[in-house]
Design goal:
This protein is mostly helical. Helix content is 73%, strand content 3%.
């Protein structure tokens, strides 16, 4: 078995352990525990099958779960030749595979550029995607198990542990520098998406869309603006008030955008400031 998938096996063990602790302390009913155990063992089988498909070891039979108390050992269809449990497990396995593919699509949509920027081999790329998918699944399963204030506190700790262990696995797979680059690329991609889905929409609607170079420079300015405060700052040149970090972005954009684009950007940040001020006034009144 390759080093990449040995790392994934470790992640599976840690994430399942975290989920197990979450489950133990969640205060669910016996029926909930039984159903979660059944789902957990199926998820374990799915992860194992994903790994064994790329290993050199012989493929084995899918391990059957213990039959639950409400099911007889001889339960079968009317013809007696097909076990109802087998049919259920096949449907469940199919569901798990579909869920995996949905999460994988989501990971690729959110982190495609970040992962692509790493220049990984096909094997390492797939291993990284698998780790990210398992992290998302573990977080989702943990959220389902949380209940009440104590559950929320435990959920926060569990998710923190999941993220730490996933990060450790990624670090072991692509190194410290690769992990830092992945984080940085992911952060910039998130900023770019926010830009594209906000002021970018306004500019496209007005027929003055951002070019790739303009996007890159605005993303860089927005990233650096986090070091500035949210204090109100007047911009006499434009006759508006914005936050200090927004003023920094506007100042940097003056040499990047056309006058039409700059007017849209200024209006966007002015609207943002005024909206937040209105919300503050409403909170004080209530």
């Amino acid at each position: 078995m390759t080093k990449s998938y040995a790392i994934i096996l470790t992640v599976i063990g840690v994430l399942l352990g975290a989920l197990g602790m979450m489950f133990y302390f969640s205060g669910k009913t016996d029926a909930d525990r039984e159903n979660q155990h059944y789902r957990g063992t199926a998820a374990d089988r799915s992860a194992t099958s994903l790994l064994s498909a790329d290993s050199d070891e012989p493929q084995g039979q899918i391990v059957q779960d213990p039959i639950r108390p409400d099911e007889g050992e001889g339960a079968s269809s009317s013809g007696g030749s097909v076990n109802a449990r087998d049919i259920g497990e096949r449907f469940e396995q199919k569901f798990i595979e579909i869920e995996h593919r949905k999460l994988l699509r989501s990971i690729r949509r959110e982190k495609y550029f970040a992962i692509n920027a790493l220049g990984l081999s096909d094997e390492k790329r797939k291993a990284l995607e698998d780790i990210l998918v398992m992290r998302e699944q573990a977080v989702a399963d943990s959220a389902e198990l949380s209940s009440g204030s104590s559950g929320n506190e435990l959920l926060s700790k569990t998710i923190s542990n999941i993220n730490i262990e996933s990060e450790n696995a990624i670090r072991a797979l692509i190194g410290e520098e690769g992990l830092a680059k992945l984080k940085r690329s992911s952060q910039l991609h998130t900023i770019g998406r926010m830009l594209d889905e906000s002021v970018g929409i306004d500019m496209r609607s007005e027929g003055v869309p951002l070019t790739g170079d303009q996007m890159s420079k605005l993303i860089d300015s927005m990233d650096k603006s986090s070091s500035f405060s949210l204090r109100a700052t007047d911009l006499p040149r434009y006759g508006v008030t914005v936050t200090e970090n927004s003023a920094y972005i506007i100042k940097q954009a003056e040499s990047v955008l056309s006058p039409e684009q700059l007017a849209i950007l200024v209006q966007y940040y002015s609207d943002q400031y005024e909206f937040e001020r209105y919300r503050d006034v409403e909170r004080e009144r209530n």
